[in-house]
Design a protein that fits this description.
three-stranded mixed beta sheet; disordered N terminus; 5 helices; GMP Synthetase, Chain A, domain 3; binds zinc ion; FSCA_dom_sf; about 20% strand; alpha/beta; MIP18-like; Phenylacetate-CoA oxygenase subunit PaaJ; Zn_ribbon_PaaD
Length: about 180
């Protein structure tokens, strides 16, 4: 059985075999390799923007919700997803932009948060829904040393989606991925 599988694989001339219709896990494995252009440490799956994988009359359709509406990265991300799927052997995949419900930082996965931290960006603190109720400044731990002795330097960091913070313990500045 496994010998036959290998023969089929080698017949595709090195191209990875495209997942069968209905194989959502195979599509997610491809999307897991597509990184966010603004935060290259985190994949579109870990960012939580891939909302649905489905097939319409045999054609693969992927629903994507932009992180921040009007974010110029949206089209770049959609193109990157399309290119990755075509490269993986999916013919003519459809990328559907889904604006509702709006993306929230709550959708970033635990792995995504770990990678943000490793990249030197503090992940969103707490839940977006609770945050708006409290209306308080979040206590953001330093991604470098973990200290809670941090202060906000500017509302805007390297992009509008982030705020610039400084750690009073290790004195390193860092970006905070704003809660939304
Ligand atoms: Zn620090």
């Amino acid at each position: 059985m496994s010998d036959a599988m290998q023969l089929i694989d080698s017949d595709r001339g090195g191209l990875p075999p495209a997942g069968a219709e209905g194989d959502v896990a195979a599509v997610m494995a491809v999307l897991q390799e597509v990184l966010d252009p603004e935060v290259p440490a985190v994949s579109v799956v870990e960012l939580g923007i891939v909302r649905e994988v489905s097939w319409v009359e045999g054609r693969l359709s992927v629903a994507v919700t932009p992180t921040y509406s009007g974010c110029p990265a949206t089209e770049v991300i959609e193109e990157a997803i399309h290119r990755a799927l075509v490269t993986a052997g999916y013919a003519d995949p459809r990328i559907e932009r889904r604006l509702s419900p709006a993306w929230t930082t709550d959708w970033i996965t635990a792995e995504g948060r770990d990678k943000l931290r490793a990249y030197g960006i503090a992940p969103p603190v707490g839940s977006a829904s609770k945050r708006s109720l409290l209306g308080a400044e979040p206590q953001v731990p330093c991604p470098q040393c973990g200290s809670l002795e941090t202060e906000r330097v500017s509302e805007f960091g390297s992009t509008a989606c982030k705020a610039l913070y400084k750690c009073r313990s290790c004195l390193e500045p860092f970006d905070y991925f704003k809660c939304l």
